[in-house]
Specification:
It is built from six helices and no strands. With 111 residues, it is mainly α. It is elongated and about 85 Å long.
Length: 111
Amino acid sequence: MTSTGVTCVGPGFRSAVTTYISERLPSMPPPKGKRASSKKDRRPKRKVCTFCAERLHDLDYKDTIRLRKYISERGKILPRRISGNCASHQRGLTVAVKRARIIALLPFVAA
């Protein structure tokens, strides 16, 4: 028996522990401001594939001005989630960039 008259094995033990914890530890206050609630519900705006919007069916590896928009500063090809391209155009873009690199129209690494 403990000093309160509740045994550690009996059914009243759990209620004694929970009241002790709730008395000792204050509950956390609800999040303040607009930012805390919007962080949970935040859904990024879906990017539109620029090639679909311009109705371009084939990507040309010689069009380096357009291809440079999809290469990072270090010379890496930007992923779909950042560039906003659809899957089929992203695959074509990757092939076009690789072809342009082989012919030395685009750099393999940052200059």
